[in-house]
Design a protein that fits this description.
This protein folds into 2 domains: about 10-105 and about 280-480, Aminopeptidase (3-Layer(aba) Sandwich), CATH 3.40.630; about 120-265, Glucose Oxidase, domain 1 (3-Layer(bba) Sandwich), CATH 3.50.30.30. The protein contains 13 helices and 13 strands. It has helices at about 1-5, 10-20, 35-50, 55-65, 75-90, 150-155, 180-200, 250-265, 315-335, 355-365, 395-405, 425-435, 465-480, and strands at about 95-115, 120, 125, 140-145, 165-170, 205-210, 245-250, 270-290, 295-305, 340-350, 370-375, 385-390, 435-440. β5 (about 165-170), α7 (about 180-200) and β6 (about 205-210) form a beta-alpha-beta unit. The longest helix has 20 residues, at about 315-335. It is elongated, with a radius of gyration of 24 Å. The chain binds zinc ion. Zinc ion binds near residues 305, 317, 318, 351 and 377.
Length: about 500
């Protein structure tokens, strides 16, 4: 094994390529790419991660000490200062904030109510980027659609559309899934709803919250109490149609509205929401490193995002990820052993409303070879699977990594093992720069109960899964940084 490490790269590539081409079957000894001492260190990191409480401390400090930290806000700046202090204290090097300007959206006061057939105040939240209503609000009949698809199926001839002159309501339901695909499907109503509604003449858009809180009989809101809550999140406009105000109502309110719809009665709604768009601001990516040795100019990027929506404390989204990747890097630094490549922690700015941090990072480091980009941005749930996006020749290295992860109850699903999605910012970088990636998939069954709501608070975070996450990230980063083979270019 030691001999392999001294072979020139080209020879190693050939050897691994031959392994990968072996009729599609895995090599008998998948650990072969690493020397036993390297695997032993990975296993040691794993065991120390499982006993480590640093992530718990970090997410508590960030959430309860600072709270919501939307990009460009004073709390965003406080979070940056906190993160730089925390990363320095963990023994990491080259700790810095790389600032960039951006334009941000700001929420103002907002309220909505059903005015007919029965008056009822609605628990609501403006969608991110929503324009304001006219002063004093607007009042209109409701045109109810069961889904975005149903709205799209309606005619775009305004005079003929039910939406024309009305407040369109889209009742898209978010299915509870482990991997988040229920959200992935439903979120299109939030993102594309305003344009589709405006195209048909609507004066405003309301949606059932994209989330799993408050579902009848699901126990979905047990963790965060039983109070109904609305889920915010970004929406968008395009230049071809007027920009109309857009907001979400709580799931119980959506159920109430659906019941009136089923009764066939005409509904009216009043909404008054104030917002500001295009506010000049600045934010930054926070970066820290554990410098490598002979391949120090190659980067193993492990990341999370520091910004949040402007509600709650961003415990799941993404305080947990910040805690996990910082703690994992801290473990490697405290072991005082350097890997060949540089392990770089990046806490991105403004993931939530435009991926500015990822775009900024990519522009700045586009010429730097990246061995890996990966992001923790799915709360504190346990990791159940590892998947890569690497060159086929590198798959034996990923297989060896998966063997070290297996005792953490992390599977390496054969059919999808090279189809991982590494998280939002990391995904942007993977696609734009063709940088290889690894996805550590977390159980997100409960993630969308509090996601983008006032309930996303440290006190509602189930922290039991944090040590397993830290262990997995330390193993992944260390072995990626020690790999005898480059991971790229990935198969996208
Ligand atoms: Zn997030």
């Amino acid at each position: 094994m030691d001999l392999r490490r001294r072979l020139p790269r080209r020879a190693l590539l050939g050897a691994a390529g031959a392994l990968a081409l072996g009729g599609g079957s895995r090599p008998a000894a998948a650990s072969a790419p690493f020397a036993e001492a390297e695997l032993a260190h990975a296993r040691d990191l794993r065991e120390r991660g499982l006993a480590d409480r640093t992530a718990h401390r970090l997410v508590r400090e960030l959430c309860t000490g600072i709270g919501a930290r939307p990009a460009g806000s004073p709390e965003d700046a406080k979070a940056r200062a906190w993160a730089m202090g925390a990363l320095t204290a963990l023994g990491l090097e080259n700790v810095r904030a790389e600032a960039f300007p951006l334009r941000v959206w700001r929420r103002g006061p907002a309220a909505a109510r059903l005015t007919a057939p029965q008056p009822r105040p609605l628990v609501m939240a403006a969608l991110g980027n929503s324009v304001a209503t006219p002063a004093g609000g607007l009042d209109a009949e409701v045109a109810w659609y069961p889904s975005l698809a149903a709205l799209r199926a309606d005619t775009t001839d305004r005079e003929q559309s039910r939406a024309n002159g009305r407040i369109v309501f889209i009742d898209e339901r978010t299915a509870r899934t482990r991997d988040g695909r229920g959200y992935g499907n439903a979120v299109l109503a939030r993102i594309n709803g305003p344009v589709e509604a405006a195209r048909r003449g609507a004066v405003a858009l309301a949606i059932r919250s994209i989330g799993t809180s408050g579902e009848a009989g699901s126990g979905g809101s047990e963790r965060a109490g039983t109070s109904p809550v609305a889920h915010t999140g970004a929406t968008r406009y395009d230049l071809s149609v007027p920009r109309i105000p857009a907001f979400a109502v709580s799931v119980p309110d959506a159920e109430y509205i659906a019941a009136w719809q089923a009764s066939g009665q005409m509904m009216r709604m009043h909404v008054d929401l104030q917002t500001r768009s295009g506010v000049d601001a600045s934010t930054a990516n926070v970066i820290a490193e554990w410098r490598g040795t002979d391949l120090a100019d190659e980067v193993v990027l492990i990341s999370a995002h520091l910004d949040t929506w402007d509600v709650g404390e961003g415990a799941e989204d993404d305080g947990a990820g910040v805690g996990i990747v910082c703690a994992a890097a801290g473990l490697m630094a405290s072991a005082k052993r350097r890997a060949r490549r540089t392990i770089r922690v990046v806490l991105f700015g403004n993931e939530e409303n435009g991926f500015d941090g990822a775009l900024q990072y990519g522009n700045r480091y586009k010429d730097v070879p990246h061995q890996l980009v990966a992001e923790s941005d799915f709360g504190a749930g346990r990791i159940y699977a590892v998947r890569s996006r690497v060159a086929p020749a590198a798959l034996p290295v990923i297989d060896a990594m998966a063997e070290v992860l297996a005792p953490l109850e992390i599977a390496h699903p054969e059919a999808t093992r090279n189809q991982g999605n590494p998280g939002p910012d990391a995904g942007v970088l993977m696609r734009r720069h063709r940088w290889p990636a690894i996805a550590l998939s977390q159980d997100g069954s409960r993630y969308f109960d509090v996601h983008h709501t006032v309930h996303d608070m440290f006190e509602h975070l189930d922290t039991a899964g944090l040590p397993q996450n830290v262990a997995a990230w330390a193993v992944t980063a260390w072995l990626a940084a020690q790999s005898p083979l480059p991971f790229g270019p990935p198969v996208l």
